[in-house]
Amino acid sequence: MAKFKFQLEAVEKVRTQKEQKMLEELAVSQRAYQAKIDEKKNLLNKKQEAFIQSNELVSKDASINDIRILDEYIVGLKQQIIRADQAIVRSRRFVDQAMRHYLAARRELKMVDKLKEHAFEEFKIEQNRDEQKQLDDLITMRARLNHGPIQDEEEIA
After folding, report:
1. Which of 16, 65, 69, 105 could form a disulfide with 22 if both were Cys (CB 3.0 to 4.6 A apart)?
2. CB atoms < 10 A from the CB of 105, how many?
3. Span 54-98, pLDDT tens digits
4. What b/e string do you get for 108-126 counting C-beta neighbours within 10 Å, with b at 16 or more?
5. Of 1.10.10.10, 1.10.3720.10, 2.40.50.140, 1.10.287.1700, which CATH number belongs to 9-114?
């Protein structure tokens, strides 16, 4: 019995590798996106701590210079948070783009998979035909051995 050999095996291999590469790129962009979100959370925590520290300085009657330095630090944190928001938006675009590329690669691989399934079904049908033909030939040969050569009806009459 013959073994199934898919003609587009090289194409399937290339598309599988492409899908894997796109999946890895998606993972990298998602990690970068998550890192940007974590960075913003860190900045927000620093800002919250700075506000608490500012309130403590005001209640302790600290010097105006210390309060002003802390306020400038808070303003700087706010600017960093704005930049972090912009970085998150950019990073999200990269994630979306990577997702689109991955989905396109996945669709391409699915097309090849469908072709492979169809080719395998055709292979099975052809195998069944060949087996049936071999069985028919075997039955014919047995009949000839058991009953002698088959004669036409004209020769018998």
Report:
1. 105
2. 21
3. 888 888 877 888 889 999 999 999 999 999 999 999 999 999 999
4. bbeebeeebeeeeeeeeee
5. 1.10.287.1700
